Amino acid sequence: MRRADRLFQLVQLLRSRRFATSEQLAAELGVSRRTVYRDIRDLERSGVLIKGAAGVGYQLHRGYELPPLQFNAEEIEAPVLGARMVATWGDEELAGASRQAMTKIEAVLPPALREVLFSTALFVPDRPWTAVATSGLIGLRKAFAEHAKVRFEYTARAGEASSRTVWPLGLYFWGSTWSLVAWCELREDYRNFRPDRMASIELLEAFDASSTISLDAFASRMRERGEA
After folding, report:
1. Which of 34, 90, 142, 155 is the most exposed place for a label (fewest CB within 10 A)?
2. Are the C-beta atoms of 31 and 16 separated by less than 8 Å?
Protein backbone atom coordinates (compact mmCIF):
# COMPACT_ATOMS: atom_id res chain seq x y z
CA MET A 1 0.00 0.00 0.00
CA ARG A 2 1.31 3.45 -0.90
CA ARG A 3 2.00 5.73 2.05
CA ALA A 4 -0.53 8.34 0.89
CA ASP A 5 -3.21 5.63 0.72
CA ARG A 6 -2.21 4.36 4.16
CA LEU A 7 -2.48 7.82 5.73
CA PHE A 8 -5.93 8.29 4.19
CA GLN A 9 -7.04 4.88 5.48
CA LEU A 10 -5.62 5.72 8.92
CA VAL A 11 -7.81 8.82 9.14
CA GLN A 12 -10.82 6.78 8.04
CA LEU A 13 -10.14 4.19 10.75
CA LEU A 14 -9.93 6.90 13.40
CA ARG A 15 -13.16 8.45 12.13
CA SER A 16 -15.00 5.13 12.34
CA ARG A 17 -14.38 4.48 16.05
CA ARG A 18 -14.27 6.45 19.28
CA PHE A 19 -10.85 5.13 20.34
CA ALA A 20 -8.12 3.01 18.74
CA THR A 21 -4.87 1.65 20.09
CA SER A 22 -1.68 1.49 18.09
CA GLU A 23 -1.93 -2.31 18.11
CA GLN A 24 -5.40 -2.17 16.53
CA LEU A 25 -4.35 0.35 13.91
CA ALA A 26 -1.18 -1.59 13.06
CA ALA A 27 -3.21 -4.78 12.59
CA GLU A 28 -5.79 -3.05 10.39
CA LEU A 29 -3.14 -1.42 8.20
CA GLY A 30 -0.74 -4.36 8.11
CA VAL A 31 2.20 -2.33 9.39
CA SER A 32 4.29 -2.10 12.57
CA ARG A 33 3.36 -0.03 15.62
CA ARG A 34 6.41 2.13 14.93
CA THR A 35 4.98 2.95 11.50
CA VAL A 36 1.65 3.88 13.12
CA TYR A 37 3.44 6.21 15.56
CA ARG A 38 5.28 7.88 12.68
CA ASP A 39 2.13 8.23 10.58
CA ILE A 40 0.18 9.72 13.51
CA ARG A 41 2.96 12.24 14.10
CA ASP A 42 3.01 13.21 10.40
CA LEU A 43 -0.78 13.61 10.34
CA GLU A 44 -0.64 15.86 13.41
CA ARG A 45 2.04 17.99 11.77
CA SER A 46 -0.15 18.37 8.70
CA GLY A 47 -3.04 19.70 10.79
CA VAL A 48 -5.13 16.60 11.52
CA LEU A 49 -6.52 16.91 15.07
CA ILE A 50 -5.72 13.68 16.91
CA LYS A 51 -5.97 13.16 20.67
CA GLY A 52 -3.94 10.57 22.54
CA ALA A 53 -0.39 9.33 22.66
CA ALA A 54 1.83 6.35 21.98
CA GLY A 55 1.18 3.55 24.45
CA VAL A 56 -2.31 4.82 25.28
CA GLY A 57 -4.46 5.15 22.17
CA TYR A 58 -5.77 7.65 19.68
CA GLN A 59 -8.98 9.50 18.96
CA LEU A 60 -9.83 11.81 16.11
CA HIS A 61 -11.06 15.20 17.27
CA ARG A 62 -14.87 15.28 17.11
CA GLY A 63 -16.09 17.18 14.07
CA TYR A 64 -12.87 16.78 12.07
CA GLU A 65 -13.48 16.23 8.37
CA LEU A 66 -11.10 15.68 5.52
CA PRO A 67 -10.70 18.86 3.47
CA PRO A 68 -13.19 18.83 0.57
CA LEU A 69 -11.91 18.41 -2.95
CA GLN A 70 -12.08 21.73 -4.74
CA PHE A 71 -12.38 21.49 -8.53
CA ASN A 72 -13.40 23.87 -11.25
CA ALA A 73 -15.10 22.67 -14.46
CA GLU A 74 -11.88 22.27 -16.46
CA GLU A 75 -10.25 20.33 -13.62
CA ILE A 76 -13.17 17.91 -13.84
CA GLU A 77 -12.91 17.59 -17.63
CA ALA A 78 -9.21 16.65 -17.43
CA PRO A 79 -9.64 13.45 -15.36
CA VAL A 80 -12.82 12.56 -17.28
CA LEU A 81 -10.89 12.65 -20.55
CA GLY A 82 -7.97 10.79 -18.99
CA ALA A 83 -10.27 8.10 -17.62
CA ARG A 84 -11.93 7.67 -21.01
CA MET A 85 -8.53 7.36 -22.69
CA VAL A 86 -7.45 4.71 -20.19
CA ALA A 87 -10.75 2.85 -20.62
CA THR A 88 -10.14 2.67 -24.38
CA TRP A 89 -6.36 2.36 -24.67
CA GLY A 90 -5.43 0.68 -21.40
CA ASP A 91 -5.75 -2.96 -20.46
CA GLU A 92 -8.81 -4.38 -18.71
CA GLU A 93 -7.39 -3.86 -15.21
CA LEU A 94 -6.49 -0.22 -15.88
CA ALA A 95 -9.89 0.38 -17.46
CA GLY A 96 -11.60 -0.96 -14.35
CA ALA A 97 -9.37 1.15 -12.10
CA SER A 98 -10.20 4.30 -14.07
CA ARG A 99 -13.93 3.67 -13.65
CA GLN A 100 -13.51 3.13 -9.92
CA ALA A 101 -11.49 6.34 -9.61
CA MET A 102 -14.20 8.34 -11.35
CA THR A 103 -16.84 6.80 -9.09
CA LYS A 104 -14.86 8.00 -6.06
CA ILE A 105 -14.51 11.50 -7.54
CA GLU A 106 -18.24 11.59 -8.30
CA ALA A 107 -19.04 10.75 -4.68
CA VAL A 108 -17.33 13.88 -3.33
CA LEU A 109 -18.41 16.40 -5.97
CA PRO A 110 -21.11 18.98 -5.32
CA PRO A 111 -24.17 18.66 -7.60
CA ALA A 112 -23.13 21.44 -10.01
CA LEU A 113 -19.75 19.86 -10.74
CA ARG A 114 -21.23 16.37 -10.81
CA GLU A 115 -23.25 17.54 -13.80
CA VAL A 116 -19.99 18.53 -15.53
CA LEU A 117 -18.72 15.01 -14.90
CA PHE A 118 -21.59 13.49 -16.88
CA SER A 119 -21.97 16.16 -19.57
CA THR A 120 -18.31 16.53 -20.64
CA ALA A 121 -18.35 16.25 -24.44
CA LEU A 122 -14.83 14.83 -24.75
CA PHE A 123 -14.77 11.28 -26.06
CA VAL A 124 -12.25 8.59 -26.96
CA PRO A 125 -13.92 6.24 -29.47
CA ASP A 126 -13.13 2.55 -29.48
CA ARG A 127 -11.83 0.95 -32.68
CA PRO A 128 -11.63 -2.67 -33.87
CA TRP A 129 -7.84 -2.67 -33.45
CA THR A 130 -7.86 -1.27 -29.91
CA ALA A 131 -7.91 -4.68 -28.22
CA VAL A 132 -4.95 -5.79 -30.32
CA ALA A 133 -2.97 -2.62 -29.55
CA THR A 134 -3.43 -3.10 -25.80
CA SER A 135 -2.61 -6.80 -25.69
CA GLY A 136 0.28 -7.65 -23.41
CA LEU A 137 -0.04 -4.54 -21.24
CA ILE A 138 -1.15 -6.39 -18.10
CA GLY A 139 1.91 -8.66 -18.15
CA LEU A 140 4.28 -5.79 -18.81
CA ARG A 141 2.81 -3.64 -16.04
CA LYS A 142 3.26 -6.53 -13.62
CA ALA A 143 6.87 -6.78 -14.74
CA PHE A 144 7.38 -3.11 -13.88
CA ALA A 145 5.80 -3.63 -10.46
CA GLU A 146 8.13 -6.56 -9.73
CA HIS A 147 11.21 -5.11 -11.49
CA ALA A 148 11.29 -8.39 -13.40
CA LYS A 149 12.90 -9.36 -16.65
CA VAL A 150 10.52 -10.42 -19.41
CA ARG A 151 10.87 -13.15 -22.03
CA PHE A 152 8.65 -13.15 -25.13
CA GLU A 153 8.44 -14.16 -28.76
CA TYR A 154 8.64 -11.13 -31.01
CA THR A 155 7.69 -10.54 -34.63
CA ALA A 156 9.28 -7.44 -36.15
CA ARG A 157 7.59 -5.25 -38.75
CA ALA A 158 9.43 -7.05 -41.57
CA GLY A 159 8.16 -10.39 -40.29
CA GLU A 160 11.40 -11.54 -38.64
CA ALA A 161 10.70 -13.67 -35.55
CA SER A 162 12.97 -13.91 -32.52
CA SER A 163 12.99 -14.79 -28.81
CA ARG A 164 13.86 -11.89 -26.55
CA THR A 165 14.71 -11.46 -22.88
CA VAL A 166 14.59 -7.82 -21.87
CA TRP A 167 14.80 -5.48 -18.90
CA PRO A 168 11.61 -3.37 -19.18
CA LEU A 169 12.27 0.32 -18.51
CA GLY A 170 9.24 2.29 -19.76
CA LEU A 171 5.94 2.02 -21.62
CA TYR A 172 4.98 4.82 -24.00
CA PHE A 173 1.63 5.51 -25.63
CA TRP A 174 1.76 7.14 -29.08
CA GLY A 175 -1.91 7.82 -29.72
CA SER A 176 -2.76 4.52 -31.39
CA THR A 177 0.08 2.18 -30.35
CA TRP A 178 2.19 1.40 -27.30
CA SER A 179 5.92 0.80 -27.24
CA LEU A 180 8.18 -0.74 -24.63
CA VAL A 181 11.63 0.70 -24.01
CA ALA A 182 13.89 -2.05 -22.69
CA TRP A 183 17.43 -3.30 -22.47
CA CYS A 184 17.64 -6.30 -24.79
CA GLU A 185 19.97 -9.08 -23.70
CA LEU A 186 20.11 -10.49 -27.23
CA ARG A 187 21.29 -7.21 -28.79
CA GLU A 188 23.06 -5.96 -25.65
CA ASP A 189 21.54 -2.56 -26.26
CA TYR A 190 18.36 -0.53 -25.83
CA ARG A 191 15.48 -1.48 -28.08
CA ASN A 192 11.83 -0.50 -28.60
CA PHE A 193 9.21 -3.23 -28.83
CA ARG A 194 5.50 -3.07 -29.62
CA PRO A 195 3.45 -5.10 -27.12
CA ASP A 196 0.96 -6.10 -29.84
CA ARG A 197 3.78 -7.94 -31.62
CA MET A 198 4.72 -9.94 -28.53
CA ALA A 199 3.56 -13.46 -27.74
CA SER A 200 4.05 -15.84 -24.80
CA ILE A 201 5.03 -13.08 -22.36
CA GLU A 202 6.76 -14.60 -19.32
CA LEU A 203 8.06 -12.85 -16.21
CA LEU A 204 11.50 -13.95 -15.03
CA GLU A 205 13.79 -13.03 -12.14
CA ALA A 206 14.16 -9.48 -10.87
CA PHE A 207 16.84 -7.15 -12.21
CA ASP A 208 18.52 -4.06 -10.79
CA ALA A 209 18.55 -1.01 -13.02
CA SER A 210 21.90 0.76 -12.77
CA SER A 211 23.34 4.09 -13.81
CA THR A 212 24.44 2.49 -17.07
CA ILE A 213 21.23 0.58 -17.83
CA SER A 214 18.19 2.67 -16.96
CA LEU A 215 15.49 4.82 -18.51
CA ASP A 216 17.54 7.93 -17.75
CA ALA A 217 20.56 6.43 -19.52
CA PHE A 218 18.36 5.58 -22.51
CA ALA A 219 17.00 9.15 -22.62
CA SER A 220 20.54 10.56 -22.44
CA ARG A 221 21.58 8.41 -25.39
CA MET A 222 18.59 9.58 -27.40
CA ARG A 223 19.47 13.21 -26.68
CA GLU A 224 23.05 12.59 -27.78
CA ARG A 225 21.73 11.19 -31.05
CA GLY A 226 19.33 14.11 -31.46
CA GLU A 227 16.33 11.77 -31.29
CA ALA A 228 14.75 13.29 -28.18
Report:
1. 34
2. no
